[in-house]
Design brief:
Blueprint (H helix, E strand, L loop, with lengths): L1 H14 L4 H19 L12 H4 L2 H13 L4 H6 L2 H6 L4 H21 L2 H10 L4 H28 L3 H17 L3 H8 L4 H9 L2 H8 L6 H27 L1
Helix pairs in contact: 1-7, 4-9, 4-10, 7-9, 7-14, 9-10, 9-14, 13-14
């Protein structure tokens, strides 16, 4: 466990060692705040809630999370520092967990800095703060799930651009899988079980369910399972490349 924390601390501080963190946070916070006001009709709805804010998170994360995840392993390979990392008294699992926790922690900071919107809603009306808290929790899980997927693709290549593109495509596919436009081509020939499986793989569906203010068990299990699968795949890929 100490090894995981050491790697996590090193990686987390590295985000703030360059202007990268400030640039990312400014862009994320600016876009996250602008979308509900200019596109989500925040004031025109006359409802004191943050639904217009959270509804854009899946699409924001589809770009911003791969931008953070692409450097987790691709950068290590490009700079040749992965060999040094592998010589440390750490297991591959510890290294993967440490880097993931650091990146997820950075995304947590970005999400936490959006709290002024919650304060604004409380000032303007009487929102259901329980729903807001659960929505923040769902958004946090969604970011972690996309980050785990991005981590696996980052481990596949030393090119960060390739890792970014693959991660965006994968996240977009997982978001869209529950929509009718994706399911319709399967309805004519695929068995019901396959259609249900594709539908249940949708990040958007599970996130939308939790935005109602209820932490449902299927959604929680889905997000945690996707995180676990992404980290397991990352460990397997890094281990295979190390053996080569």
């Amino acid at each position: 466990m100490n090894g995981v924390l050491i790697v996590a601390r090193r990686e987390f501080l590295s985000y703030f060692a360059t202007p990268l963190a400030a640039v990312f946070l400014v862009f994320f916070l600016g876009i996250a705040a602008a979308l509900p006001f200019y596109i989500g009709n925040f004031f025109g709805r006359n409802i004191a809630d943050l639904e217009p804010f959270f509804s854009f998170h899946p699409w924001l994360y589809m770009v911003f999370v791969p931008a953070i995840g692409m450097r987790l392993w691709a950068e290590e390979r490009r700079q040749g520092t992965i060999e040094l990392l592998m010589t440390l008294p750490l297991s591959i699992t510890q290294a993967v967990l440490g880097k993931f926790i650091a990146a997820w922690g950075f995304l947590t900071v970005a999400l936490a800095l959006t709290f002024p919107l919650s304060v604004t809603v409380d000032y303007l009306g009487s929102p259901d703060n329980g729903v807001i808290v659960v929505s923040y929790f769902a958004s946090w899980l969604l970011a972690g799930a996309m980050l785990a997927v991005s981590s696996a693709f980052s481990a596949l290549t030393r090119n960060q651009v390739v890792a970014f593109v693959l991660s965006v495509v994968a996240c977009f596919t997982l978001l869209m899988s529950g929509l009718e436009i994706v399911l319709a081509p399967f309805r004519g020939w695929a068995p019901r079980e396959l259609i249900d499986l594709i539908s249940h793989l949708s990040l958007l569906t599970h996130f939308s369910d939790m935005m109602r203010g209820v932490i449902d068990l299927p959604g929680l299990v889905f997000f945690l399972s996707l995180i676990g699968f992404g980290l397991f795949a990352t460990v397997a890929i890094v281990d295979t490349r190390k053996a080569r």
